[in-house]
Every structure is written in C-alpha cells, then in structure tokens.
Amino acid sequence: MFVHGLPDAARESPSVLSAWVPRKPKGAVSFRLPPVGFLPGRPGVPREQGPAGREPRTPVAQIHFILLFSRQGKLRLQKWYTTLPDKERKKIIREIVQMILSRGQRTSSFVDWKDLKLVYKRYASLYFCCAVENQDNELLTLEIVHRYVELLDKYFGNVCELDIIFNFEKAYFILDEFIMGGEIQETSKKSAVKAIEDSDMLQETMEEYMSKPAF
Asked: Where are the annotated coiled coils located (predicted)?
C-alpha cells in the first residue's frame, strides 16, 4: 500500500526526465533488453519447452518483488510476485529500506540479501529496488528498472514523485503491462504505452456513458 505524505523534496520542484534518467557518459556500454522469445538461458534454471523447431523462451530475470521508496524512507509502490504474510512483508520492507538508505552514493547497486540479490537504482528522490535470483544478470535487471522509469516518463511526461503519489493506480497499471508474474511480458515501450492509453480511452468512454441519463 502507498504511504502518503509529501517529502520536502517533492514540494520544492517536480523532477524532470533529466533528473530521473542520468546521462550516459561517452564510451559507456548500452544494455538493451532482447525481444521476448529470444532471451538467453540462465545456468541452473530449466528451460521452457517451446514449439518444434523454435528456441524455447526463458525470462530475463525472475523478480520476487519490486519496491519504490523515497530518500526519506516513504514507501511509494510495492509489487510482490511471491506469497508472503503481511507481517513478513512489512519486516522485509523496513529492513531493505534502512539498508539501502544507509549505503553511500558510490557503493555498488547490487546487494546480496539472504538467498536473493537486490538490484537498486536512485532516480532523483526515488529508489527503485528489485529482488531477483542470485544467478540472474544484474545489468539486465538494472535495464528492467530503467525501462520502467522510461515507461513512467513516456506516460506522464517528465514524471516526478508527485505523479506516482497521486496516480499510483496508473503506476501499478504500467508495471503490470511491463511485468507479470515476476517476468517481463512486454519489452516494447510503444506497445506498453499504447495498451495503457487504450485502457484510459475505454475508461473515459465508460464514464461518459454512465453519466448520461437513462430513458
């Protein structure tokens, strides 16, 4: 659930894309998500059976949960792909938020935590954190986080923390279009955003229809 309350950083000025997405230095390697259906296998993970004559599909990463929280420790979004009691979830959230916020800015974005691996990235005043399997590729997981930020920015336009606070249902909807069951289901930004816009259009049509008097 969302924890409401606006931090001082959110009141001062909204974050624009330049603040959310850091500029890539010259010579930096760019990692791109391969299309679904052409993803490499992972060691120790059984491959799915695909159609005859085709490469079986395997996910980029098996995500256990995703957390979005501010630098003040306020939880903005949580998505769980494993079944846990609410008490255990609250304990995990509290532990992870405290651990990540206590780390320095120049430390690694990868943290070994219990039998999982935490991959996180800070964009402006928000931290995006994913918990994945130990054998999963950390760089591809970072690209997943970055792709979600790009989807948010493409939908909201210069997305900021306030957009997620006041439109959290849209943030969840965008995430569900991108990831389902802890695995990527749509790598195309254009297709994901179009699905969201179509849903908005349908909702507006239904609201307009319901507002008309019945004769």
From this structure: none
